[in-house]
Amino acid sequence: MNNHQSSTSLRWFPAVMATGALLLLAVLMLGVQLSTENTELVVHFAASERWNLILSGAVLVFLVQLFRNSISAFWQGAKKHNPLPQVQLPTLNENKPLKRLLICFAVAGLMIWPFFVSRGAVDLATLALIYVMLGLGLNVVVGLAGLLDLGYVGFYAVGAYSYALLNQYFGLDFWSCLLIGGLMAAFFGFILGFPVLRLRGDYLAIVTLGFGEIIRILLNNWTSITGGPNGISQIPKPTLFGLEFSRRAKEEGNVPFHEFFGIDYSSGYKVIFLYILALLLVLLTLYIINRLLRMPIGRAWEALREDDIACRSLGLNPTAIKLSAFTIGAAFAGFAGTFFAARQGFISPESFTFIESAIILAIVVLGGMGSQMGVILAAVIMTVLPEFAREFQEYRMLMFGLMMVLMMIWRPEGLMPMKRPHLKLKDHQPDKGDVSVNRQPIAESV
Amino acid sequence: MLKSFNKKMAVLTAAVALGSASIASAADTIKIALAGPVTGPVAQYGDMQFIGAKMAIEQINKSGGVNGKDLEAVVYDDACDPKQAVAVANKIVNDDIRFVVGHLCSSSTQPASDIYEDEGILMITAASTSPDITTRGYELIFRTIGLDSMQGPTAARYIINSVKPQNMAVIHDKQQYGEGLASSVRDEVQKAGIKVALYEGVTAGDKDFSALIAKLKKEDVDFVYYGGYHPELGLILRQSAEKGLDVKFMGPEGVGNKDISAIAGAASEGLLVTLPKSFDQDPANARLVEAFKAKSEDPSGPFVFPAYSAVKVMADGMKLTSSEDPEKVASSLRANSFKTPTGNLGFDGKGDLKDFSFVVYQWHADGSKTALTK
Amino acid sequence: MDSIMPESAYYFIQQLLNGLTVGSTYALIAIGYTMVYGIIGMINFAHGEIYMIGSYVAFAVLAGLALMGVDSVALMLAAAFIISIIITSTYGFAVERVAYRPLRNSNRLIALISAIGMSIFLQNYVRIAQGSRDIAMPSLITGGWTFGPVDEFNVTLSYMQVVIFIITFITMTLLTLFISKSRMGRACRACAEDLGMTRLLGINTNQVISLTFVIGAALAAVAGVLLGLYYGVINPYIGFLAGLKAFTAAVLGGIGSIPGAVLGGLILGVTEAFTAGYFSTEYKDVVAFSLLVLILLFRPSGILGKPEVEKV
């Protein structure tokens, strides 16, 4: 506003305005309390702590605004003297064998890790891995192909219900259902994607949102088959070549895992087995997506995201390419859903609401669209952070929302922006609506 | 401007964070996990469960604790989300807690109880009423509240014998609790030859029921049973009065709290509600009610006393067996009966209360109620 | 009045009126979405929460006035509208400054995530400030008209419904006049046409965008007060569902077009009422979303939307 003034001048006007705005925002919302006494609506002033909070907030805002020029000058100076260290994640592209070795170590570490930590941690890690899978799948649709999908949770639900229903009615086991669940979700993705993929951007977003809701409502209403809101319970856990991880075998003639190997029963095995299974599924997902990315289809996704018209001029069929991304993304949601059903043992439509889609989307964007390492990191943060913040239970969702906003402002390109090989010819501002990719001159193949 | 707003948010968050002090853990205590929604849309029902259970723990500790140890409450938030409920259950296993009072929503209790049973943890729910929870042959899962399958028949019996409608409608909120009750009522009254002209679900959280009410009017129904919670039924009552639909309504315990009168006003007069006996009205519990009031807590919620009893029977079971082994406590729960504010409780083989009776009440516009049956 | 029409006709009229009432409030909220989208091309996901805040403020004002002994309905209504509009406008303004302005030039998705974050934040902020319980209030305006046979199905139209129609109509007229006649309105239209060019012509586009958010929030406040009074119940979660419906309405009518938002809202409201009335309440939302999909298939930019021109 008055930025042209000298750096130490006081900013009375903005300070008064900002404080006034803050008071308007806070006084009627935080300062008074609506409640029902007997059956009457009453309003009274909130507790004095709250008023102290509002007033101290107002004073703080006033002072910060008043001296903002000096503060920012001081900040700039401090930055000049002590530049913040640029966090540069090591790139391993130069050294292929070393990279392979490190990956092997990391995977081995992740495999052994659960045997040394607590059960709660392993379970949490399993949940995080489900989100990694979902994030990676949605990343194909949103990050790579640039299609905004707000109904991704629908395909997740299809996968979960495929397993639950096939198991309940036909007694199929986890392993065959894993495949069927993925295929079913892919099929749904194909059928739903076919008519809508010619829609652009935000229209696609609302239509996919609608599809997600429709799938959930149908599952909820179709009580005779899906159990409606009661959901489906007692979904069996996966087995290892037919060995169960329960204390006693559920089916006649089956031998539980611990008896087969002659070791003592520990419930921890089941949790660890689920974790390792999730880890393997994630690794498989990563492998498949990485292979696809290097195939013409993967290149076409990104090309389409960057420039629709150029793609068409080059003879690529945009609908087919979009559809392939949509279908493949849906398939991974199906895998994740099947696994989720197995981990939960019980599913009901309320696990597949819109907010779930929003969280998965947040993972993709937070991680840096298109960047797989970023998505993994973001999925882990999004699942683990709320657990650590359980002391602030009351304020958990508040902070979650705030974090989403602040992250987008401070690091809109995500935690780990996608890096890609390309040469920079000259600087130019990315257009509005452009999917921003990190423009660093790295002339090196991925 | 921008920075100042961010700062404001930061200060707010930090300030509120400091406000919530954490509970310091005592040296030698028996921990009881209280699992339920602290956050989310049904947090208010979670509160009922927590204040009841905490009061029980406080009073048991005041009178000397259990087996020479104090009880300690540890609250876990599942937000009524099945996914978080499983995480909470695993955390409880992890924190080496052997006794759980919770969860609230049946859809959370169900997946969590799989884990408790497997891990040898004793769980007593004071609020989940779905029959499915105790039909799985589990040994460590109990509840101190009645089942939907008990409440539905009570309502149906009253409809058949006392209301005697010609043409009724059954509405539900498409949730586990509401639909379960609604379908059980529908089946029972149909068996008795009453015509159910309309059986339909509404969306929980919806605010406009005018289309449904016009339909009820057109079908000329003379009685409506609603399976669900008070916010939707309150609105249905209110809008029915405005739209000139003049029929009697009936609902389950989920609608039976004062808020329904706040929402529906005069339209809530005459509503029929099946409720567990209101324990806070029982003269025997007067001192307990005083204790709640002294802490300015509301003892009238339907889950407050069952939660109190859940802790009470747990503690009594531990005292009887002089052990903290959940399996021993569980078998003693099945073998004995316990004196609690909700009556003399005994458990059957499934872990349900041997008898838990629901009473039909008539609701009044000022939020009070009179019993119509015993 | 004697029965001049068959019962089914009365039923039809009743459901139509029900649908139009709901539809006009969808329309009021939908305009906020459509104006913001028209000008900066982003979905303001937090708009539903602004509507919810509007309801809360109105309840606080009404309860406060009632405690002070004010009993004139007109005065109470006027106070509720004015204070609620002022406060939600400030919220709209602040949300734009904090969560959207820094992201003006970034990818749409980034802004969308920020908006979803803002929506979650506001919802929980109100939950913590006011509790998650339903807050209820008795009707301020009661009574209505009844048409049709006395002993058969008759149509009811409450005064409150009429108030909703009238206020919606007045608000829409004022908004249309503002957009088409005033200087700021012209600036708004110019920004919607070409933001960069408008800036070059010396118009303070930041001011125009702020104004858009303020107007959108004010309309949400009007909807918040009206719906708060009509249904009489609020909680911190009402914004999400209402926002979702209004957003659907905006897209249905053609996002970016103000008449489109109104039309979309009315169509959505009437569709829902007829689905519930003639088919089943359970499938209300399914039919509403399916209608959206169908319309978008045949008119990819909504009913009144401008077809998007692809630029190289």
Describe this structure in words.
The complex is a heterotrimer of chains A (446), B (374) and C (312). Chain A folds into two domains: 12-74; 96-410, ABC transporter involved in vitamin B12 uptake, BtuC (Orthogonal Bundle), CATH 1.10.3470. Chain A contains 17 helices and four strands. Chain A has helices spanning 12-27, 48-66, 68-81, 96-112, 119-144, 152-170, 174-196, 201-221, 223-226, 257-260, 268-294, 296-306, 308-313, 318-344, 354-367, 372-388, 396-410; strands at residues 32-37, 40-45, 232-233, 346-347. Residues 1-5 and 429-446 of chain A have low confidence and may be disordered. In chain B, helix 3 (82-94) packs parallel to helix 4. In chain B, strand 9 (248-251), helix 9 and strand 10 (272-276) form a beta-alpha-beta unit. Chain B is built from twelve helices and 14 strands. Chain B has two domains: 28-145 and 303-341, Rossmann fold, CATH 3.40.50.2300; 149-277 and 358-371, Response regulator (Rossmann fold), CATH 3.40.50. Chain B has a seven-stranded mixed sheet, with helices on one face. A five-stranded parallel sheet of chain B has the order 2-1-3-4-5, with helices on both faces. Chain B has a two-stranded antiparallel sheet with strand order 11-12. The longest helix of chain B has 20 residues, at 43-62. Residues 1-27 of chain B have low confidence and may be disordered. Chain C is mainly alpha-helical and 312 residues long. Chain C has a two-stranded antiparallel sheet with strand order 1-4. In chain C, helix 1 packs across helix 9 (238-253). Chain C is globular. Classes of the chains: A mainly alpha (446), B alpha/beta (374), C mainly alpha (312). Chains in contact: A-B, A-C, B-C. The interface between A and C is large, with 66 and 74 residues.
Spatially, the strands of the biggest sheet of chain A line up as 1-2
Class of the largest domain in chain A, according to the CATH hierarchy?
Answer: Mainly Alpha
Shape estimate of chain B: elongated
How large is the radius of gyration of chain A? 26 Å
**Could you say what the CATH topology of the largest domain in chain B is called?**
Rossmann fold
Main sheet makeup of chain A: 2 strands, antiparallel
Number of domains of chain B: 2
Strand percentage of chain A, roughly?
A: under 5%
